[in-house]
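Translate sequence into structure tokens.
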Amino acid sequence: MITILPFGPLQSNMYILSNSNGYIIIDPCVGVDLTTSYLSSFSVEKVKAVIMTHAHFDHLMYVDEWRSALHDDVPFYLSHEDVPLLKDANLNRSQNRGLSQEYVVETLDVCHMDSKLFLDEYYCQVLNTPGHTKGSVCYCFSSKNNTCKPMMFTGDTIFCDSIGRTDLPTGSYMQMRDSIRLIKSLIGDYDIFPGHGESTCLSQQKQTNPFFI
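Result follows.
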């Protein structure tokens, strides 16, 4: 099950991937209390992991709050390439909004997630997709029993019929072009859950996204 919570000044999407075994938080841009009040059945104790597509403030503005609320053994995943952005308000773009946010959370590199089984149901494939930031990644989840369509959480790499900016610090249009080429090469269809805006699917983007054509 996927729950979508758009929030913040840029309406970033926080996702909760869940089943009876617990929750995975994707891009913690919504606070713990608001999440709990919005989802009556939500239990902080059942969060098994927090993962981040990249380290811009609008996608992780509550990451330290989640770290404080969760058990110490709950892992937080982020590409090592984006770790420097956590402690630099210019790089994580919070300074641009007058917030000057720096984050102290300790993270595991996303390489530790690759091929791992989460919630005893979802296998994760990590795609390194630099372009929006140097450490941007996409997370592909597939059910071990094929009970649901494969899912891809793309952060600010892919939007519905568009892509993320490449003119921000550590961004690169050339790398973004290579990342889009990698995603286009994937076999099969995926539901795509981007960092902003509406959801879509890979087959549709191959037909309608001008950056895919």
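Note: The chain has a mean pLDDT of 95.
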